[in-house]
Amino acid sequence: MSTKNPTTKYLKAHAEPETHARPSLPRRYRHIGCIPACDEAKSLPATLDRLAQTEGAEDAMVLVVINARQDAPSRVHEANQHCAAMLRDRAQLPQVPIAHGTYRGMGLVLVDRFSAGRELPAKRGVGLARKMAADMALAWIEDGTVATRWIHCTDADVLVPTDYWHQPPHDIAGLAACVYPFKHLPEGDALQRQALAYYDAYLRYYVAGLRKAGSPYAYATIGSLLCLDADAYAKVRGFPKKQAGEDFYILNKLAKMGRIETLSGAPIELAGRTSERVPFGTGVAVAQIREQLAQGQDYQVYDPRIF
Fold it and tell me: How many beta carbons lie within 10 A of that of residue 108, not counting itself?
């Protein structure tokens, strides 16, 4: 294979070490998905169960990177240990750093970045975990183990639609990425639900404003919703290794490589919980809006004239 191939060059020079340590798989898959999981022992089983119920799940493989930073609270490390034990039991996984098994008929790969000595560096986070999984997916696509050009990326607290694997178009000419439609699932008390409704409306308002202005960046930048073309992913050198915002930055780079298409099928259902796992994003925004509402403050968004 020519070293001028951008995917080959990326895998050789920029892929994470896990990519080169990936196991040989006993079969070929048609679809591949990537999930970073940190402190997700409660939500991950439901996400995997729904993925296992999708059309084509018997030909799908999901990579789960259970991860925690070195400086994470002890409860996070304990939750990760519990989550990994659950997966190893249900998928009959060997206790090795990268393990392959079967979860309810669907292929499953568990990557251990949570055990002592294998944690993420203190200043890294979900971006690095996403990059590990997507790099491995890219390598399996490139060597023919996975027969697709699409790298699906989602999260450990979502419910995907039945046609999840089949929504991206077969004709990918000019497409760098697809973004799934979404809806938030209300959680918590009335104030938290109101905060979520405001934030959901803001996300849609902002994309609508960009679309009205004719911007090529008129799409939701939510990591749970991504589906990336393998070649385009390699050309932009993968996910940024950030604690948050990696979804925004990779889509910004991919938009310069080709079109970003928002799909029109059934939505991915997103958790509406508050969260402090990352410095910003839905969980943090909902918590902040909830606090504003509790103090009697109005929730304000950008003036539409900025578009």
Answer: 23
In whole angstroms, what is the distance from residue 33 CA to residue 134 CA? 8
- Confidence grade of residue 275 (pLDDT, cut at 50, 70, 90): low
Tokens representing residue 202 in the block:
């803001």
Structure tokens at 253: 């780079």
Gap between the Cα atoms of 97 and 15, Å rounded: 17
The region of weakest confidence among 115-124, 158-167, 277-286 is: 277-286
Residues 6+ apart with CB under 8 A from 279: 243, 244
DSSP-derived pairing of the beta strands 226-229 and 175-179: antiparallel
Nearest-angstrom CA–CA distance, 158 and 162:
13
Q: What pTM value is reported for the model? A: 0.93
Residue 279 CA to its chain's centroid (Å) = 17
